[in-house]
Amino acid sequence: MDAFYASIEQRDNPALKGRPVAVGRGSGRGVVAAASYEARKFGVRSALPSHMALERCPELIFVPPRFDVYRAVSAQIHAIFRHYTSVIQPLALDEAYLDVTEQWHSYGSATALAESIRRDIQQQTGLTASAGVSYNRFLAKLASGQRKPDGLFVIPPRQGEGFVAELPVEKFHGVGPATTRRMHGLGIYTGADLKTWTVQELKRHFGSSAQFYHDIARGIDHRPVEANRPRKSLGTETTFAHDVADWDRLAAVLQEIVRKLAAGCVQKRIAGKTVTLKLRYAGFQTVTRARSAPFPTVEEAVLQRMAHDLLHSFFPLERPVRLLGLTISSLVPYDESALPVQMGLFEQ
User: Fold this and answer.
1) Residues 38, 59, 95, 318: which is the catalytic one?
2) Peptide bond before 316: cis, by omega within 30 degrees of 0?
3) Which tens digits make up the pLDDT trace of 197-239?
4) 165 inside domain
5) Which residues of 140-174 are buried (b: 16+ CB within 10 A; e: fewer)?
6) Distance set, CA 247 to CA 217, 312, 313 (Å)
7) Which of 72, 58, 70, 77 is nearest to 33 (CA)?
8) Is 95 a catalytic residue?
9) What pLDDT score was predicted for residue 269?
10) Number of domains in the chain
11) Which helix (H) or strand (E) element contains residue 72?
12) 290 - beta bridge partners?
């Protein structure tokens, strides 16, 4: 989807059409959750602190997020997807992979099928979507960003390797900023540069990711589209209006975070064994520590104890905290009758 949250706000409020819009909190420690294309022209992007966004675009209009609306529209879009294929791997509310290997023949081509999906989305939601069409996930993802907004781009098999060769490695989906810096340090700037390295050479610098990098430099990606992919973690976090160093304040906020996390587990019918606490200090340094229970749990009291112990392990603090977050992982389906309740010792 094109600027999904912001586009919904512009759709639902005609006064915002054609104007720079940011979804998020426009004061204090707020950050941009999404930006319209009008705002992006000024360098406003998601995750940008609100005060910096306003410096770049003084005319920027902040609107509070409405995640219930975004989820409802996402459900509409996924219903459209299911009309065309059942093999759907969601990436977020606004993005998904679709495997149409068995369906494209009915439409003449995968490109025609993608155009039909985009047309249905436009007619049923009033929003635009961009599509990437190719023979694997890596290339389809790259293609989807080539003609945004409201565009479609196709990378056929005979052009896949050549397309990757000319692309800067920082544009590769799956190559983040840290890996980009390491590749640049090795003289790897494009797909063509990456292709000159053997798997063995890449392993010395990138470990288990070497085979993936070796393959994508050749336009190869064997990963299937995974329908109904199980959730790996669930988390929530709070950003403070002012940096906090007081134990009582942090412990109180963490208690509320745990309540929300436990409620989310019950709602999604999942339980987990590992709890990870995240602190972001005033200087934006982020640190995490984790602890595991001997059994999957959704018991709030158990999660409270684990989270409390993790927070205590950070004291005395190196410096005040600007963000506090908690994530539960090692998830299993929630079955209340099968989950033991135990307040004993935990594994470190």
Assistant:
1) 95
2) yes
3) 999 999 999 999 999 999 999 999 999 999 877 778 899 999 8
4) no
5) bbbbbeeebeebbbbbeeeebbebbbebebeebee
6) 49, 8, 12
7) 70
8) yes
9) 85
10) 2
11) helix 67-84
12) 276
Is 68 annotated to bind ligand?
no
Please name the residues in contact with 221: beta carbons below 8 A apart, sequence gap of 6 or more: 136, 137, 138, 139, 215
In the sheet that holds 32-35, the strands lie side by side as 32-35, 21-24, 61-63
Q: Which of 65, 80, 111 is the last residue of a domain?
A: 65
Range of the domain at 56: 4-65
- pTM, full prediction: 0.73
| Residues in a beta bridge with 153 | 132
Distances (CA, A) of 140 to 130, 145, 204, 222: 11, 9, 29, 13
Report how far residue 305's alpha carbon sits from residue 343's, in angstroms, rounded to the nearest whole number.
9
Residue 147 belongs to some domain of the structure: no
User: Mind listing the pLDDT tens digit for each residue in 299-322?
Assistant: 899 999 999 999 999 999 989 999
Report d(CA 83, CA 202) in Å as an integer.
Answer: 42
- Please check whether residue 314 lies inside any domain of the structure: yes
Q: Which of 65, 90, 115 is the last residue of a domain?
A: 65
* 287 domain residue, yes or no: yes
Please give the pLDDT value at position 42: 97
The CATH number for 255's domain is 3.30.1490.100
Q: Alpha carbon of 194 to those of 46, 64, 165, 200, 209: distances in Å?
A: 29, 43, 8, 13, 13
C-beta of residue 245 within 8 angstroms of C-beta of residue 324? no
Distance CA 274, CA 289 (A): 10
CB 183 within 8 A of CB 175: yes
Catalogue the E-assigned strands of 94-229: 95-98, 131-134, 152-155
Domain with residue 57: its CATH number is: 3.40.1170.60
How do residues 31-86 score in pLDDT, each as one tens digit? 899 999 999 999 999 888 899 999 999 999 999 999 899 999 999 999 999 999 99
